[in-house]
Write a structure and sequence with these properties.
2 copies of one chain form a homodimer. Chain A has about 120 residues and is mostly helical. Chain A contains 5 helices and 2 strands. Chain A binds a DNA duplex (30 and 30 nucleotides) through helix 3.
Amino acid sequence: MFISIDFNSDEALYMQLRNQIIVGIATEMLKEGETLPSVRQLADNIGINMHTVNKAYSVLRQEGFVKLDRRKGAVVSLDIDKLKAIDEMTKDMRVVIAKAICKDISKEEAHMVIDSIYAEYGID
Amino acid sequence: MFISIDFNSDEALYMQLRNQIIVGIATEMLKEGETLPSVRQLADNIGINMHTVNKAYSVLRQEGFVKLDRRKGAVVSLDIDKLKAIDEMTKDMRVVIAKAICKDISKEEAHMVIDSIYAEYGID
DNA sequence: TGATTGTTATAGTATATGTATAACAGAAAG
DNA sequence: CTTTCTGTTATACATATACTATAACAATCA
């Protein structure tokens, strides 16, 4: 697996998990229709509790990244509502951009940051 | 004051405070050299505890937005290290962009989101 | 002197996080 | 049918974080 958990991080374990799975989907290491490890399996693999993995999966389902199936487990399934996604992205970025402006980062420089991250994920 | 706290939010009070002050600086409602209300005064004004405001101020100082002076109080004072700021911005945006890619948001659309937020803050 | 500043200390409550067990219903495979 | 695997749910406990409540301190300034 591509998951690596930092137990010393101040970020909650289930959020680290959720974030890395989202990055996994973005980079196409995880593709639509693919099945994630079962909560017990992944928990055992990482060395954390089942419920922590379950919470990450629940969040991912609620955010429209996976569907949970009692027989198959967690399946990557993207629920795409673009207007909603853009609205959410705007909310997520407001404080980040405010910080940037305080630190004298121009709109053009912000664009460059965006581009570099898209490039990290293999998009140019 | 321009501060409005949502007690039903899942976001910590001191983080709401910290975020709104950063936005205040970005929009130039708060300018370099200006003094923020004292921790007791602002706490009283909002209806929260002194320590909560103090924590917000401490975070803002640690992040280089204000300096704390025993006589004057908290003074807006931007410590600008652009390389560090860009690095931090990149970190803040990684998961946001991963989410965006999953939701089929293109680089160009991300640029537009950036631009709209800069516009919100009066920059075009 | 008296009021105000940030700072520090202590203590209590509430919530969030993570763990530990356990059990359940549905589905798949033997 | 039995076994084994899913996600799901329930309970309980420990720990950390967030927030509040008082209180006191040194430094500053009117």
